[in-house]
Amino acid sequence: MSKSDSQPLEEITQLRAALDEANYRYYVLDDPTLTDADYDRQLQRLQQLEASHPELITSDSPTQRVGAAPADGFPSVAHAIPMLSLDNAFSREDIHAFAERVAERLECSADEVEFTCEPKLDGAAVSLVFEQGVLVSGATRGDGRTGEGITSNLRTLRSVPLKLMGKNVPELLEVRGEVIMRHAGFEALNERAREEGSKVFANPRNAAAGSLRQLDPRITAKRPLEFHAYQAARLEPDLGDTTHSELMARLSTLGFRASAELKVVKGPQAVADYCEQLGEKRDALGFDIDGVVIKVNDLRYQRELGFVARAPRWAVAFKYPAQEEVTTLNDVEFQVGRTGAITPVARLEPVTVAGVTVSNATLHNADEIERLSLRKGDLVSVRRAGDVIPQIVSVVKKNNGDKIVFPTICEICGSNIEKVILYKKLKNKKIPKPGAAYRCVGKLVCPAQLVETIKHHVSRNAIDIEGVGVSLIKKLVDDHKLNNLSDLYLLDECYLKDLPGYGELSAKNIKFSLDSARNIELGRFIFSLGIPNVGAEASRVIGESLGYVKRCFYIYPEILSLVPDVGWSAAESFYEFFKDSHNIEDVKKLVSMGVPDNKDYGVSSELASSVRMSKIISQMEFDGVASGTASKIEAAYDSISDFFEDARSCFSSNKIRFSKKAVVGIASKVEDEGFYQKYLEIEKQLIELGVHWTQALAFSEKGSQPLKDQIWVITGTLVNLTRDEAKKKLQMGGAKVSSSVSSKTSFVLVGDNPGSKKDKAEKLGIEVVDEKRFQEIVGGLSD
């Protein structure tokens, strides 16, 4: 009897180990030990043994990479930790500015800060989750908060370990990285496509992203894809690594391919040198990169620096100049966006730039047209900024064609186009930004703005109404059936079915989608309104902070901007939107129709804890009053009204000894009746909201944060309330709601038909509660 007959398990184990080792050496160490023929022979032998002994097949076997049946679609997956984007740097000066910002917060010299530098791969970002060392899920980045579950497809990549290597394997590991396609593999893929008469891919990034989204994993398996790790987003338990470079070395020992170009350097000068040196060999790498990712190496410093709404403060992406080509400018069209912004778009003779055919390019604004002094027929240099958006860089050869003139009247609605000076807030001072924007003042009277607003409203990340596409929206606007957002929900089914290309079934489906769009979470509803400068993340935070749609109608930007992750521009735009009587009227109609959730969940603890008198004082921008003096004012006075009264009496109370400059600066503003009344109104609003600093104790005693520091997970179908309602109650109590169970989880709320989360919680000894017990815990938090 042969060894394979008498000891199948032993041979299977040896073959799996040999194949795993071969994958590790090939994809991680770049030191292959098996030829492709030898690898295929061993894999075939393993397949034969497992076919004879199916009871010995395990999910982490190399034979199980491909095996899932074609899917109907991809499920949505909420990221436990958002996959944020990075802020960009384009020059040595930008790198130095980033390093100085980091150093200022860390209170040290920029030259003392240690950074890691590595190529910014140009592919598709994904996340992999391993539990007890085994791959359990994989997802795309999506919008950063929610991606698509593509586990079956990611399993087909030989550079993705199905089981972690080594002995010190964490209980939970979430690895993020980029799936790329090397130039050689991309060319071979397109060559096969041309031979078969199939569609060719424009570039390796599109090829990688498209390959990952195949419904049939067998197609993905045939594509030359590679996974390159760049971050350990979650690692439990902590294995003692103190730097990003140590974490990447650990990922390598666990079986992942990390960048061979990763380098640890000190100070911004060394970072800039690395970027320059990598740029010089960029074309020889064999795969596309569009820059360098620069991170603060010390993990303790990363935690201290934290995040802004959409990006970490401890990292930045340096972007290389893109490729440029020369072509002819045929014309310029002026498009009207959702907010009325006028965007000039250049129409070009088609030209290939960085592997993509370009026929249109952005010109940004009127200043850019003036700078270039464009005329029809000019030969222009075009590049893909950030390797994505084509733009005109310069005029190579002038022509005698018509000069391009920025319009003063909207071509769509005939309204005036006004110049808008944009501002940024720096240390509580409004500073004009360079250049200017131009906007059509027609608002929703302008059909172009109305179409874009409705298009945004029904989009996937907003209300998510199926069947209402751009062509239908344009038709409805042209027929004057839609004049605002609320008109959308009054559409008549009989009218819809008589439209060209639509029938009774289409009309019924659209009407059903519209009628189903009810009780929408406040954050999503705010985002759906398309308020300028208020993106998805800011909308979510505002919704959770205010807790009630009617508070949106009057909240002052001075209060809203105090909330972490809500900047001044977002808060001010939000306030201006709801100052418009037409907007308020339309929102009130939507509320009466039940589109947004109209329950009052109360003001969030995050808003309450963000309100400080010193912050309000700093917003007042008194000459001679810095943050230190603002803190002294906070300590000396109970309210703004008390402080103002003392200021108007020339500080007769002698509570604080102010500098002469501060006395003059305060008096000059407080004596202004408009300024005086405005901030008294702001203080009154703080009191009405229950978040005034004098109410902080009462807010806490009211039961606002009895669940502080707790982490909850919700699983199964709830009977007496929705998941969103349960989540809001928990957040109001100060708890965090996670999508996955770990050793840090405090409670798991279980409804009907719970998944594996309940089993995992019980195995970890975490308390599992039903709805009745949940209501006992949260008590009257919604009152």
Q: SSE layout and pairings?
A:
Elements: H1 3-6, H2 8-27, H3 36-52, E1 76-78, E2 88-89, H4 92-106, E3 114-121, E4 124-131, E5 134-140, E6 146-148, H5 151-154, E7 172-181, H6 183-196, H7 204-212, H8 217-221, E8 225-236, H9 244-254, E9 263-266, H10 267-280, E10 289-296, H11 299-305, E11 315-319, E12 324-336, E13 342-353, E14 356-362, H12 366-372, E15 379-385, E16 389-397, E17 417-420, E18 423-426, E19 429-432, E20 437-440, H13 447-457, H14 470-478, H15 493-497, H16 504-516, H17 522-528, H18 536-546, H19 557-560, H20 568-579, H21 581-592, H22 605-610, H23 613-619, H24 627-636, H25 640-648, H26 660-670, H27 673-689, H28 696-704, E21 711-715, H29 723-732, E22 736-738, E23 747-750, H30 756-764, E24 767-769, H31 771-778
Parallel strand pairs: 2-11, 21-22, 21-23, 23-24
Antiparallel strand pairs: 1-6, 3-9, 3-10, 4-5, 4-7, 7-8, 10-11, 12-13, 12-15, 13-14, 15-16, 17-20, 18-19
Helix pairs in contact: 2-3, 4-10, 13-14, 17-18, 23-24
Overview of this structure, please?
With 783 residues, this protein is α+β, with helices and mostly antiparallel strands. The protein folds into seven domains: 3-64, Orthogonal Bundle (Helix Hairpins); 88-319, DNA ligase/mRNA capping enzyme (D-amino Acid Aminotransferase, Chain A, domain 1, 2-Layer Sandwich), CATH 3.30.470.30; 321-441, Nucleic acid-binding proteins (OB fold (Dihydrolipoamide Acetyltransferase, E2P)), CATH 2.40.50; 450-516, Orthogonal Bundle (DNA polymerase, domain 1), CATH 1.10.150.20; 522-607, DNA polymerase, domain 1, CATH 1.10.150; 612-701; 705-778, BRCT domain (Rossmann fold, 3-Layer(aba) Sandwich). Helix content is 39%, strand content 19%. It has 31 helices and 24 strands. The chain starts with a helix and ends in a 5-residue tail after the last helix.
